[in-house]
Automatic annotation (TrEMBL):
Gene3D superfamilies: 2.40.30.130, 3.10.310.40, 3.30.54.20, Bira Bifunctional Protein, Domain 2, Threonyl-trna Synthetase, Chain A, domain 2. The keyword Electron transport does not apply. This is Alanine--tRNA ligase. It comes from Candidatus Enterovibrio escicola. PANTHER family: ALANINE--TRNA LIGASE, CYTOPLASMIC, ALANYL-TRNA SYNTHETASE. It is an enzyme of class 6 (ligase). Binds 1 zinc ion per subunit. Catalyzes the attachment of alanine to tRNA(Ala) in a two-step reaction: alanine is first activated by ATP to form Ala-AMP and then transferred to the acceptor end of tRNA(Ala). Also edits incorrectly charged Ser-tRNA(Ala) and Gly-tRNA(Ala) via its editing domain. Its EC number is 6.1.1.7. Consists of three domains; the N-terminal catalytic domain, the editing domain and the C-terminal C-Ala domain. The editing domain removes incorrectly charged amino acids, while the C-Ala domain, along with tRNA(Ala), serves as a bridge to cooperatively bring together the editing and aminoacylation centers thus stimulating deacylation of misacylated tRNAs. CDD domains: AlaRS_core.
Length: 859
């Protein structure tokens, strides 16, 4: 029976739905609040707490098609991809789960029914494995299901070490685990390989398709196994593997979705041989890259981001092997949406973002790939003993951005290997240099030994009493502090907030009758709080009870910036998308700085939208409240936490209206209105995919506006002065042009009855210049009549000049008036110089012609 991968996924979920299971959507590839796990690597991850009995849901049976990534961490398949028929960095895991509901018998019966009844797989093609000592499962397979004993293989622990068998499944070094039974499909003896447990098990003949884990224990970090109160079931079947069987192919890469992806990759790369191994790698890697980005991972140099970067670079290198021209991976996002069917839904809304991230990352690596490859080729050609030395591997990593597995890949293709240990040594050496080069302040070396932790009293107050438990001067313990001394003082309890979570430390004073200490910064040293400052009066000793007073204005300014940071964070997620994650934060009195993941610069419209949203929230003047609750309850409430951050079991949850809810230990304003307003000062990039916003609030925002206004006024004044100077220069230039023009006009001089006459049309000249010209022309001709017509901006200007010896016969005023009437205007002036305006520009030519006639009649 043939089914498409999409149909198969649906058939599985529907089958288990018909058996009372709730269909639960796939969770993100980034496990929420689980620092023990790099990526979601199995369907059971999202149910981890259900297995442990910590979390209760309103169902006890669930089924999912979970997106998984196995690249990095405990289950890592990256290096196998492209080299085997069935390993992927990304795959979908079909699973059914029982939380204290059915156990071994139910799980085995359902699995068998689905495979043999629904999918109609021939029973004689299936073999099963069980945990060596699990007789119960043996008899279930053998007696209940009817699988013959020779098809049930017991798999022992590795060299007898407990719980190391392939048939004992554990999610990670800690967490739920238990024995399992696996179902294998025999692809036939035309393919190399042997049954599980045999020497040829690594071949592609017998493929594991379904793992049924009987969750019985919680493994602790020290290795102890705690028995779970409710034994449960966790199963997982790779969608791509079962699709290969149903579609009658031996390799996952031959199933429908991979065939389409490989074709799409071949098209964008421009390569024709669809069986090429590099195309498989690209088709595999595009899936993990895209879904990791959809789930909020951005390429970077550490943690999850670095795994993503490695996968992208590996894919780019394989494209490069096929001589691709330019960035290509991002062009595969569209085809991927198409082939993923239901599982591609999450991707649809993020397609544009994913394409941008991939393109930027591909292009940045392309800059060093060619040089790096040339160096690597060279090194591999001159290699001695078949192993590439660690120094070269490190240089490729450090200078050319070649992840170690990429270098290893290239070496392996030529039957060579790399010195991984040597690489680690070179890497460690570089880290050591970096450490030595960095400045260690005394602070880092400060060792404070006190019996009790400092209790922080300052969430609700800025003043309290406290007893001095420790004084340190120049990193040395001191009983008594006397003038003048710089010191670090520790109290048993304090209202001073110590720098943490990006919020800077408080400042203020300690005082007693005997002395006064100015606190200029507050820092954490493990669980004690150190107040840095100077003794400004008298003396202080260990054991003294002092009054501790925080500079409340300073604290408030910080609080406003901290609350505003939360609003900004949420507003960025609303405007730019859920992929925005906090990557760093600095909250000080002067303002705030917020670093976050985003693939490109935030454009001015988006910035404005963010600013507007934050300010609208401020104006709503919502309550800012904090609540202490369990981490679990906070997660349920939907509080934003930082990925990878380790939180205590009890956490503070900060809520601003119904807009923002975040885990936070900082000090905050009491209502959003207290923030006054937020003004973004700058937006910039600080690393690939990481942007930084700097902003100010409250008084700081007011000051910023005032400063800006002053700057504008200064700028306007400057421009005005400059404009005046320029206008003057222009006028001078115009006059200069007029003089030149007048000189050239003299060639057009005519005579009427022996009198010099000059009639000209000079459009575009301004009136003032024309008047200068009239005088100039009169002077030049000595005796005569000048008439100038001009159209500027559809307005007519007329000017007439008559030298004194002629004014008896010709009156300039009359002349101008005569012409003005013809162009819809009037005018007048002195007999020797007159001016008029008019609005009918089109009549000017005719009107000018009339001047000759008029003069002829009078001269
Ligand atoms: N968690 C088990 C596995 O990943 C079964 O789903 O194999």
């Amino acid at each position: 029976m043939y089914m498409s991968t999409d149909e198969l996924r649906t058939a599985f979920l529907k089958f288990f739905e018909s058996k009372g299971h709730k269909i639960v959507p796939s969770s993100s590839l980034v496990p929420v609040n689980d620092p023990t796990l790099l990526f979601t690597n199995a369907g059971m991850n999202q149910f981890k707490d259900c297995f442990l009995g910590i979390e209760k849901r309103d169902y006890t049976r669930a089924t999912t098609a979970q997106r998984c990534v196995r690249a990095g961490g405990k289950h890592n398949d990256l290096e196998n991809v492209g080299f085997t028929a069935r390993h992927h960095t990304f795959f979908e895991m079909l699973g059914n789960f029982s939380f204290g509901d059915y156990f071994k018998e139910g799980a085995i019966s359902y699995a068998w029914e689905f495979l043999t009844d629904v999918l109609k797989l021939p029973k004689d093609k299936l073999v099963v494995t069980i945990y060596k000592t699990d007789d119960e499962v043996f008899s279930l397979w053998n007696e209940k299901i009817g699988v013959s004993a020779d098809r049930i293989i017991r798999i022992d622990d590795n060299k007898g070490a407990p719980y190391t068998s392939d048939n004992f499944w554990q999610m990670g070094d800690t967490g739920p685990c238990g024995p399992c039974t696996e179902i294998f499909f025999d692809h036939g003896d035309h393919i190399w390989g042997g049954p599980p447990g045999s020497t040829k098990e690594k071949g592609d003949r017998f493929i594991e398709i379904w793992n049924n884990v009987f969750m019985q224990y919680n493994r602790h970090a020290d290795g102890t196994m705690e028995l779970l109160t409710k034994p449960s079931v966790d199963t997982g079947m790779g969608l791509e593997r079962i699709a290969a069987i149903i579609q009658g192919v031996n390799s996952n890469y031959e199933i429908d979705i991979f065939q389409k992806l490989i074709k799409a990759a071949a098209d964008v790369i421009g390569h024709e041989d669809l069986s090429n191994q590099s195309l498989r790698v690209v088709a595999d890697h595009i899936r993990s890259c895209v879904f990791l980005i959809v789930d909020g991972v951005m390429p970077s140099n550490e943690g999850r981001g670095y795994v993503l970067r490695r996968i992208i670079r590996r894919a780019v290198r394989h494209g490069n092997k096929l001589s691709v021209n330019g960035a290509f991976l991002y062009k595969l996002v569209g085809p991927l949406v198409e082939v993923m069917g239901m599982a591609g839904e999450a991707l649809k809304q993020e397609q544009g973002l994913v394409e941008k991230v991939l393109k930027i990352e591909e292009e940045s690596f392309a800059c060093t790939l060619d040089r790096g490859m040339a160096i690597l080729n060279d090194a591999l050609e001159n290699i001695k003993g078949g192993v590439l030395d660690g120094e070269s591997v490190f240089k490729l990593y450090d200078t050319y951005g070649f992840p170690i597995d990429l270098t290893n890949d290239v070496a392996r293709e030529r039957g060579l290997s790399i010195d991984e240990k040597g690489f680690e040594t070179a890497m460690e050496e570089q880290r050591r240099h970096a450490r030595e080069a960095s400045q260690f302040s005394n602070d880092h070396n400060l060792v404070i030994q006190v019996d009790n932790n400092t209790e922080f009293m300052g969430y609700g107050t800025t003043e309290s009493h406290g007893m001095i438990t420790y004084i340190s001067v120049g990193s040395m313990y001191t009983e008594t502090l006397s003038m003048p001394d710089e010191a670090v003082i520790v109290l048993d309890q304090t209202p001073f907030y110590a720098e943490s979570g990006g919020q800077s430390g408080d400042v203020g004073f300690f005082s007693t009758d005997a002395g006064r200490f100015e606190v200029i910064d507050t820092k954490k040293y493990g669980s004690v709080i150190g107040h840095h400052g100077n003794l400004v009066d008298g003396n202080l000793s260990v054991g003294d009870t002092i009054k501790a007073k925080v500079d409340a204005e300073h604290r408030l300014a910080i609080a406003l910036n901290h609350s505003a940071t939360h609003l900004l964070h949420e507003a960025l997620r609303v405007v730019l998308g859920e992929h925005v994650q906090q990557k760093g934060s600095l909250v000080r009195k002067e303002g705030l700085r917020f670093d976050f993941s985003n693939p490109e610069a935030v454009n001015p419209d988006e910035m404005r939208a963010v600013e507007k949203l934050v300010n609208a929230q401020i104006r709503q003047n919502n309550d800012i409240s904090t609540e202490l609750m369990s981490l679990d309850a906070a997660k349920k409430k939907g509080a934003i936490s930082l990925f990878g951050e380790k939180y205590d079991e009890q956490v503070r949850v900060l809520t601003i209206g119904d807009f923002s809810i975040e885990l936070c230990g900082g000090t905050h304003a009491s209502r959003s209105g207290d923030i006054g307003m937020l003004k973004i000062i700058s937006e910039s990039g600080i690393a690939a995919g990481i942007r930084r916003i700097e902003a100010v609030t409250g008084q700081g925002a007011e000051n910023a506006f005032y400063r800006q206004q002053q700057e504008f006024i200064q700028k306007i004044n400057k421009y005005q002065d400059r404009a005046k100077v320029l206008e003057k220069e222009i006028q001078q230039l115009k006059e200069k042009v007029a003089v030149q023009k007048s000189e050239s006009l003299m060639t057009e001089l005519t005579k009427i009855k022996g009198v010099n006459v000059l009639i000209c049309r000079l459009d575009g000249f301004d009136r003032k210049v024309l008047r200068t010209m009239i005088d100039d022309l009169k002077n030049q001709m000595g005796s005569g009549v000048v008439f100038l017509g001009n159209v500027t901006n559809d307005q007519v200007t007329l000017l007439a000049g008559v030298t004194n010896d002629i004014v008896g016969k010709i009156n300039a005023g009359e002349l101008v008036n005569m012409v003005a009437k013809q162009v819809g205007g009037r005018g007048g002036g002195r007999p020797d110089m007159a001016q008029a305006g008019g609005s009918n520009a089109s009549a000017l030519s005719m009107a000018l012609d009339s001047v000759t006639v008029w003069l002829s009649e009078r001269l």
